[in-house]
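ugh ok fine here u go
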Amino acid sequence: MKAAYLRGPRRLEIEDVELPHADDQVLVRVLACGICGSDLHGWAHPELAIGIKGDPAPGFTGHEIAVAVPGPAGAETLAAIEPNRLTACGTCEACQGRSAWFCRNRSGHEAFGYAEAMMVPEWALFPMPDGTDPVLATLVEPLACAVHTVRSSHSADGDGRIDGLSVAVLGAGVTGLMTVAAALHLGAAAVTVTARHPHQG
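structure:
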């Protein structure tokens, strides 16, 4: 299997890799993967790349992933991946409390989304509706971040809504636009957006 690995500043290399098989994981085929700001930062400055337990992690790029999950009789279903669950243990208090980001028992992973295939724990897979475009499915992760941001804001009520409020979003990249959508869906009366680049106007 081929995967892209970050091997230095602004240097990605395509390499062959063997995926270790595990009984509690599923071999999935990568259909599409987004490019996050954190991927760009790591590409320009590998020392800033997110790793396991503080160590740099070459290859740990691409976490906005849409995959084909094998089913009976060769059928496949589309799923999005919750990237924090890829390397989390699944059993600690943080994982059991649906806060896998805070897992302190993370393990390594051979390849993330910039690969032909991945081994994925079942609890990290979220099925998508039939007919969903895999490219659009890569937006599930940034959209989830945006919804969480709005629902967790100090202005949100106990149900995570911001009915009637005016919202300012700084930045019109993917996350900014997802935040606009989340704010409007959760009741914002008006949203003002700033944009850094002319093409975002």
